[in-house]
Write a structure and sequence with these properties.
Length: about 525
């Protein structure tokens, strides 16, 4: 059991007054509110850093689930009460600490805003003190953690905002906020850019809405509603014991952004290709312009960012494409409840060779693959699907059916042109031909079997003596050949026929000439 979170945005309408937008002065109220809350946050940050012993105090904590008593750090709620007792004037306690009188420094600040500020600062101060403690323990002379900044997006507790969408016309909805005008705190109505997407997200069952945040940028403002959901999903250790387990393997590429294969009982049940629809070439043209402008401008000024509009356009394209590709992966997982999502463990891929624009393009493509991986895992976990990463060694080089090393080629004018970046794959041993990315996606399944195969409690390998066990057909790497069923070969038995490891009976691909090249056994 775990928890996942997501954010749903509600934009505030700052268009022209004639178009139904907010008055120009209302945006200044938001800026003034953020500024005074940052000042209040700075006050409490200095206060907690001046009392580090209380911040890291160890007390007895009672577990809410088990009732067990253990020692732990003092909770944020107790720190909140302690901080208000020493800094806020009340009728019961009119004399706070002289140097830390918050009521005089910030008169009339709403108590809900004050408590949200204190909760934000507790996390910042604790994180800083923990980092400093680890730095001192390491014995390093450089790299001392810096004091955190007080700036942060305001958290809106109940009583500082009001949004009643059930009783209002969604086309004329308003958000009621308590803001600072520079002299006093008042309630102000802000028109919103309400949409059906927000309405659908906030009404989805199972999601609980937490305290929203006010996100104010130079050109826009929005309310970010945080939603959490409790997830019940099997652990990987439990899933691998299921004989009917379904694995969904994803091979991430450049042109074909994702090749998704579904495997159960050693058979590929479904395959889906997600194309980039020309994104790679489109991005390359933009980066050529960036490289040319940088060459014309000469040495860049330190701290200055060039071609901001082009880079912003590329980032927007990447974000949109990554979300759509991740959504396609999750749509396949939704068809198979309890499945396991498998990715390759790709950490550092260095772009080398070619022009500057080509190297930039490869770097951006690698970043896009990482973003797809991250978003797909988050979206899959939200529906109860766990994900794992496996060793990517040999997934693009070896045959998914017999395990021998194959070649990649491209069919041009009826002729085979072999090369590293060929779109098709051919095995010289079993004469199996298919799309190269499909072959790599099938090998991701095998890499997962290798990771999960191991010795039993009686000392024998999993699947030993049973040729139909998938664990016995794991991939073994040698200098000259990839051996399948190595356990039987070591015992002196040479099988007359290699077992099919994928049996993609329903997959058929065609080359450029239109002839099928994906043959069954």
């Amino acid at each position: 059991m775990g928890q996942t979170a997501r954010t749903t945005k509600l934009l505030l309408d700052f268009s022209g007054r004639s178009q139904g937008g907010a008055n120009p002065g209302k945006r200044e109220h938001l800026a003034a509110t953020v500024e005074i809350l940052n000042a209040a946050r700075r006050f409490y940050l200095d206060f907690f850093l001046a009392h580090p012993d209380k911040l890291m105090e160890r007390v007895e904590v009672i577990s809410k689930k088990t009732g067990e008593v253990r020692e732990g750090v003092i909770s944020a709620d107790h720190l909140l009460t302690w901080a208000e007792f020493h800094t806020v004037e009340t009728p019961d306690h009119p004399t706070p600490l002289p140097d830390w009188n918050f009521s005089r420094a910030f008169p009339d600040l709403p108590n809900r805003y004050r408590r949200s500020v204190i909760k934000d600062v507790i996390g910042k101060a604790r994180g800083y003190l923990t980092s400093v403690t680890k730095w001192h323990a390491s014995g390093k002379k450089q790299g001392k953690p810096g004091i955190p900044t007080a700036a942060n997006h305001p958290t809106l507790y109940a009583g500082t905002f009001s949004l009643d969408l059930d009783e209002l016309d969604v086309r004329k909805s308003f958000l009621r906020l308590k803001v600072y005008t520079g002299s006093e705190w008042v309630w102000v109505h802000y028109p919103t850019c309400y949409n059906r997407y927000f309405d659908r997200r906030r009404a989805e069952p199972g999601w609980e809405t937490e305290s929203p945040k006010l996100i104010l940028s130079k050109q826009s403002a929005a309310i970010h509603f945080l939603q959490t959901k409790t997830i019940t999903a099997k652990k990987i250790v439990e899933s691998k014991r299921d004989p009917d387990l379904v694995t969904v393997a994803v091979d991430l590429n450049v042109k074909q952004l994702a090749v998704i294969t579904v495997r159960q009982h050693g058979v590929i049940k479904e395959t889906r290709f997600v194309s980039d629809h020309g994104l790679d070439q489109h991005r390359f043209q933009h980066l050529k312009r960036v490289a040319k402008k940088q060459w014309q401008a000469g040495k860049a000024v330190k701290g200055e960012h060039s071609n901001q509009q082009l880079w912003a356009h590329v980032r927007r394209q990447h974000g949109d494409c990554a979300h759509k590709t991740a959504r396609a992966i999750v749509e396949v997982c939704e068809k198979y409840p309890g499945c396991v999502l498998v990715f390759e463990r790709l950490r550092t891929i260095k772009a080398s060779g070619g022009s500057k624009s080509r190297r930039l393009n490869r770097k951006q493509a690698n970043q896009l693959r990482g973003k797809i991986n991250q978003l797909a895992k988050e979206k899959a976990y939200a529906i109860g699907v766990v994900s794992v990463e496996v060793n990517p060694h040999g997934t693009s080089q070896y045959c998914a059916r017999c395990g021998c090393k194959g070649v990649r080629f491209t069919s041009q004018a009826g002729q085979r042109v072999t090369g590293k970046g060929g779109k098709l794959f051919s095995c010289p041993a079993c004469h199996y031909e298919c799309h190269a990315d499909f072959n790599a996606s099938c090998n991701v399944h095998h890499s997962r079997l290798n990771a999960l195969s191991g010795y039993r409690s009686d000392g024998r390998m999993a699947g030993e003596g049973n040729p139909t066990d998938p664990a016995q057909a794991r991939m073994q790497v040698s200098i000259h050949v990839k051996v399948v069923g190595l356990l039987l070969v070591q015992r002196g038995h040479v099988p007359t026929r290699m077992l099919s490891r994928t049996a993609p009976q329903v997959i058929t691909h065609g080359n450029l000439a239109g002839t099928p090249v994906c043959r069954t056994a």
